[in-house]
Amino acid sequence: MALQDTLDQLRSVDFNDLELNNIGTWPSPVKLLLMVLLFAAVALGGYFYYLTDKRDALQQAEAEEVELRAEFEDKAQRATNLDAYRQQQKEMEETFGALLRQLPSDTEVPGLLEDITRTAIDNELTIRSIDLKPEQRTEFYVELPIDIVVEGDYHKIGTFVSGVANLSRIVTLHDFKISPEASAQDLKMSILAKTYRYLDEDE
Q1: Splitting the chain (203 residues) into consecutive groups of 10 residues, what average pLDDT does each group show?
Q2: How far apart (Å, rounded) are the C-alpha atoms in residues 144 and 127?
Q3: Within 10 Å of residue 198's Cβ, how many Cβ atoms?
Q4: How far apart are CA 160 and CA 33, in angstroms?
Q5: How many whole angstroms from its chain centre is CA 33?
Q6: 103-198: CATH number
Q7: Which end of the chain is more exposed for a tag (fewer CB within 10 A), N or C?
C-alpha cells in the first residue's frame, strides 16, 4: 500500500508549484522520484563514459589475443618442422650448386665453342661463322652471346638446334632466322646462342 500511496501523492502534486531554489520543501514522493532519475542518469553516464571504453578495450584485447594465438601456433608449427626445413634448405643449396656447376667459367668457353662446332659437323652442316659477342652483366651472372650462322638441310638444322640445346652446359637459343640458299636443298640459319657464367664476387 505504501507504493500506492506514493503514486497517489505524485498524482496530486502540481509540478508547476515546485521551486528549484527550494527543493527541501518538495514533497517526499517528488524527492524520491528526483533521486531515482538522478541515479539513472549517473548510471547511464557511467555506462557510456566508462563501460563503453572498457568494452572497446576488451574487444581490442580479444582481437590481439586471437592474433597472438595464431602467431604462436604458426611459430610452433615451424619449430616442429625445423628439421624438415633444414633438410629442404640443404637440398636447395645442393641444387643451386649443381646449377652453378653447369655455368661455364672463362676457361670453359673455348670447350663450349668446340662442342657447338662438333654438333654442327656431326649434322653435316657448313659453319659460316661463330662469333663471340661482348658479355652482358646482370646482378648474379654474365651472359655470353654467340652468333652462329650455318648452312644445310632443314632436318639437319633442326637436329643441330636440338643438339646445342641439350649440351651439358646451359645454352639458350634466340632470334632464329632461316633463309633459302642458292641450292634448293640448303638453308641458311642464323641464331643467337647464349651461355652463362657465374659472376665472381671479385668482379
Answers
A1: 54 57 62 73 71 75 87 83 84 78 67 90 91 84 89 90 86 88 80 82 59
A2: 19
A3: 16
A4: 105
A5: 66
A6: 3.30.70.60
A7: N
Residue 143: φ, ψ to 5°: -85, 140
Neighbouring CB atoms inside 10 A of 193's CB total: 22
| Dist CA 114 CA 154 (whole Å) | 22
Query: So what's the pLDDT on residue 149?
Result: 93
Please give the C-alpha separations between residue 184 and each of 149, 154, 180, in angstroms, as whole numbers: 18, 11, 7
DSSP string, 20-64: GGGGGGS-HHHHHHHHHHHHHHHHHHHIIIIIHHHHHHHHHHHHH
Q: Which three cell numbers stand for residue 195?
A: 651461355
What is the rounded CA–CA span in Å between residue 60 and residue 66? 10
Question: What's the rounded Cα separation, in Å, for the pair 64 and 81?
Answer: 26
The structural domains of the chain, with segments of one domain joined by +, span 1-80, 103-198
Position 69: which residue type? R
Quick check: 169 and 119 in contact, CB under 8 A?
no
